[in-house]
Amino acid sequence: MLAVAVFVSGRGSNLRVILDSPALKNLIQVKAVVGDKLYCPAFDIAKNFSIPVYNVGKKEGFISFDDLEIILKDFKVDLIVLAGFLKLIPANFVRAFHNKMINIHPALLPSYGGPGMYGSNIHRAVFESSAQVSGASVHFVDETYDTGRIIAQKCVDISGVQSPEEIAERVLSIEHQLLPYVIEKIALGKVFVENNRIRVET
Ligand code: GRF
């Protein structure tokens, strides 16, 4: 079983998909959910599955990333999944989980990524560019926003959309397919880093 921690900041639909995935049921165990807020709806999902929740950051009562590293290592976490987590991960923590931390981004990287490119900002930028396709990307996490090596991407046609919200909806349904797919491949040992490129065995 792959021991997994999921980091969240919001509604937690990707967390729910991971927890509900029949393909992942016998492959992974979500040991911890981590948020950068005192409360977000994703915490309720964790609690329904009896998964411990940790609050990380500098606010009072929150734990530091250094303490979180110790906790996750105690849990022998093999993979961290950033599923809508908004805070930049400190460099030390990134190094501690090198090639063991992935992020789902709701656009086709390397476009529409970087600081400020989150949530509705992304879909508005895609809409205003008149791009005809968008999609989701899953990548390893490095020290800067959205620049780590891309593991997998999936496109969606947005040629007929009327609003950024419509793009968000189409992309979210793609995210819900792509993220469990990548986690499954990692759990099965089918994701390789070779010459700075990522290869996923089919
Ligand atoms: C998703 O679009 C994810 O790609 C982005 O934030 C959103 C989180 O959605 N980084 P949810 O909390 O999983 O519903």
Name the descriptors.
Rossmann fold; 6 helices; binds 5-O-phosphono-beta-D-ribofuranosylamine; two-stranded antiparallel sheet; alpha/beta; seven-stranded mixed beta sheet; 202 residues; 9 strands
- CATH hierarchy: architecture of the domain at 2-108 and 136-151 and 176-190: 3-Layer(aba) Sandwich
Radius of gyration, in Å, reads: 16 Å
- The averaged pLDDT comes out at 97
CATH topology type of the domain at 2-108 and 136-151 and 176-190 = Rossmann fold
| Cofactors, ions and other ligands in the entry | 5-O-phosphono-beta-D-ribofuranosylamine
Lateral strand order in the biggest sheet: 3-2-1-4-5-6-7
Question: What order do the helices and strands follow?
Answer: EHEHEHEHEHEEHEE
